[in-house]
Amino acid sequence: MRAYWQAVGENLWLALDTLRTHMFRSLLTVLGVFIGTLTVIAVASIISGLDAQLVATAEQYGTRVVWVYKLQMGLPHRLTREERLRKPLTYEDAMAIKEQCPAVEEVSVAIFRDMSEFGLPPSTARYKAREMAGAQFMGVDANYIALANTALADGRFFTEADDQHRRDVTVLGANVVEELFQGEDPIGKTVVVDGHPFEVIGTFHKFKGVLGDNPDDRNVLVPLWTYQKLYPTAKDHFISAMANRGEMDQAQDQIRGLLRRRRHVKLADPDNFGMATAESLVSEFRQIISTVALVMVVISSIGLLVGGIGVMDIMLVSVTERTREIGVRKAVGARQRDIAWQFLLEAVVLTGSGGLLGIAAGWTLSLLIRVLVPSLPSTVPLWSVATGFVVATSIGLFFGLWPALKAARLDPIAALRYE
Predict the structure, then answer these.
(1) Taking the CA of residue 51 as centre, how many other CA atoms within 13 Å lie in the half-sphere pointing to its CB?
(2) In this structure, what are the phi and psi dihedrals at residue 23, rounded to the nearest 5 degrees?
(3) Directed axis angle between helix 336-372 and helix 401-408, to 10°?
(4) What are the domain boundaries of the chain?
(5) What is the pLDDT of residue 208?
(6) Above 80 in pLDDT, residue 10?
């Protein structure tokens, strides 16, 4: 066994010496392996960071909350004719869920003008001479803050009395406060939203976002019935229902069954409303990023294949260049397997070096992304490092096999005569 490892060590040393002797040629040879490994590490780091941040963002909204709307929530998509013509959910639907679904602990309702496939209709908020376009203006009930799983930065939230008396008060998202007040205390001040004045009674802490700012940081919230007073034709309701602990599946089944009955959906027809949870949104996002990851793996595989062909080509050249050396080694007692292992190890060292360079470059790129683009999270998972190195060395093992066997099968007398 000691002699075996000694032989492996000698072959490894010969491989490293060859790599050093032909440094430039070796670098060009493993360029494809380097690019392929770099791509794997970079994509894996970005996807891993995005996934971790998405999970944290989704959990911020509560793992026990079911969101219900007339349209399916998730990634934007072109609406079908049936979706455009769907009747909205109603306040009565929300109250029915609260009263008739035993697995539901609490319900919150939001109202806004018709949401298009691009989101809420844009609103403009103004304070003195400062103006903010694209504010998310809607009415919510007093339960909103509990189900949104958020906290106030300052002031207070609406009470049932504010809602019932239709008071002109508002609670603002962090971005609205930053843009309109710029360091000034907003509590007690008056903002004008779409021509309607409201007294600021509270502000929210900043929400976590997957990439940059969260849309909820642009919220301008007013009491539900205040919004209804200003926009009597507004009918679009968004319902949030909090399930009892451990009863998430039951809550979803009960809500679905109740709404299908209330909306007169036939047994064989699909739901004419959408339901989502933090888990379902994370799952949908993971399906998207897994597709992106698959595409990038295919692209990196092309680089690895090109690198492997380059390794095979350069190893065949190396066998030809060192034919006389092979003959000398065989003449002094080297066996076929010794020659084969020498060239196999050389190929593995060649591609393994390219893999290590790719891993180092990918790790550096991940750190640069984290520093230069904080909104794009990046973290290198250990599995990607291990996979990159194993694949790189496997490429050398596979594509170096034929040159190694060719070298091992050379006739020693013919090899010694080779000029």
Answers:
(1) 18
(2) -60, -50
(3) 160
(4) 2-56+284-417, 87-272
(5) 63
(6) no
